[in-house]
Specification:
- It is found in: Membrane.
- Helices cover 68% and strands 2% of the residues.
- The protein is mainly α.
- The protein has one domain.
- The protein has a two-stranded antiparallel sheet with strand order 1-2.
- The N and C termini lie far apart (49 Å).
Length: 397
């Protein structure tokens, strides 16, 4: 009981610190935009229009400093946002996702108010659809291979998809060819691929038997439906063998990473191609989060129809899931700021792989999912490869 209360206090303090840091970054970002607007020289009406492009924003030390703060907030909260629901039964994950995305949309609404209700670009909702589709797999991944392994694998695929789409201009984006040391970019990408292979050799205990106290305080293993019948919490994952769980967890993590890695493309596209579109990443947060919530609602409706209006609902998971969604919304908003201040070639490697390190630390020291000298050695080497790949990719720009 005392241990549970302690980590709840730690998470509450972390959320508070994240909110303060995010408010600081957002306020400074708004101030920078207003100053740029006031100091913009008068343009002659006869001047030829220049197509909208993303220009480097890290031209001052202050902007770079804010970008790294935003990236640090994103890494910490992405790596920890699933901790509140790790020990809470969430069934097949559909109810969890809908509640989670409800909290995400609330964060987007707050950002929209702070930004002064900027123009809503519906195309940015497509990014929310891609992310939410990948997020459907989170609960099965947690049950198959655990928190640490899941985030490490999907984070690596996230990095690779972001690298390909940005480097070669996939999905209509402008290719990123402004590399001062392109050879470092290729080496960094190769190390990211190597890290994925190394993570697959780390064996994780994805599930464990809850203690009687956890069963009593967190969730009952059996829910009583309105008709009085008992409804089991078992999902399709529980019917798999250990090897099948491992394979399913790796494949689902790869699919989730690909979906996550392409979710920013619909947000960057209007910035590059729409005339007069805002270059402030926070102006697209609400549209992106609206796509997340709309997709989650659609999936939950389809799920309720499939379950004949008897979806698996877990009331004790609501508050932890709302906290998890709040942390994710803060992290994603920080990523938007980091993209603007540091450019995607710098922020993407850091934020794609950094959360995996945080999650693995939770898995090793708190959840005890990763054990044994062999596993810890492989994990340490994978950490080193991941960090080296991220740094090389960042320094190549």
């Amino acid at each position: 009981m005392a241990g549970q209360a302690e980590w709840h206090r730690i998470l509450a303090r972390s959320v508070y610190i994240g909110l303060v840091l995010y408010a600081f970054v957002a306020a400074c970002d708004c101030g920078q935009v207003q100053n740029d607007t006031l100091t913009t020289p008068h343009q002659d009406n006869a001047t030829t229009a220049i197509p909208a492009t993303i220009t480097p924003s890290n031209t001052t030390k202050d902007e770079t400093y804010l970008g790294f703060i935003a990236a640090a907030v994103s890494v910490a909260f992405f790596g920890s946002n699933l901790v509140p629901i790790k020990k809470v039964d969430t069934g097949d994950g559909m109810f969890f996702q809908w509640v989670f995305c409800s909290a995400v949309w609330c964060v987007g609404l707050v950002v929209n108010v702070i930004q002064g209700y900027p123009t809503f670009y519906p195309i940015a909702m497509l990014g929310g659809f891609l992310w939410c589709t990948g997020n459907v797999t989170v609960v099965p991944i947690l049950k198959c291979i655990g928190l640490g392994m899941g985030i490490l694998i999907w984070g690596s695929f996230n990095l690779m998809m972001g690298w390909f789409s940005g480097r070669f201009g996939w999905f209509g984006l402008n290719p990123q060819d402004k590399f001062t040391r392109p050879e470092l970019d290729y080496v960094g990408f190769g190390l990211a691929v190597l890290s994925v292979v190394m993570f697959m050799f780390v064996k994780s205990e994805g599930t464990r038997t809850p203690s009687p106290e956890e069963q009593r305080l967190l969730v009952s293993k059996v829910n009583i439906s309105a008709a009085g019948a008992e409804e089991s919490d078992e999902s399709w994952v529980d019917k798999l063998s250990p090897n099948q769980k491992r394979l399913a967890g790796i494949l689902l993590s790869a699919c989730a990473g690909c979906a996550y890695g392409t979710s920013f493309a619909p947000v960057i596209y209007p910035q590059q191609h729409y005339k007069g579109a805002s270059q402030n990443g926070l102006d697209y947060v609400f549209a992106h989060f609206s796509g997340v919530y709309a997709t989650a609602t659609l999936y939950f409706i389809l799920y309720a129809i499939y379950m004949k209006n008897r979806p698996k609902v877990f009331p004790r998971a609501i508050l932890p899931t709302l906290l998890s969604g709040l942390m994710w919304g803060i992290a994603e908003s920080g990523w938007f700021v980091a993209n603007q201040k540091l450019q995607e070639s710098v922020s993407f490697p850091i934020i794609s792989t950094g959360p995996g390190l945080i999650a693995a630390l939770w898995g090793v020291f708190y959840f005890k999912e990763i054990k044994g000298a062999r596993n810890l050695l492989i994990l340490a080497l994978a950490f080193a490869v991941t960090v080296a790949g991220s740094l090389l990719t960042a320094f190549s720009y």
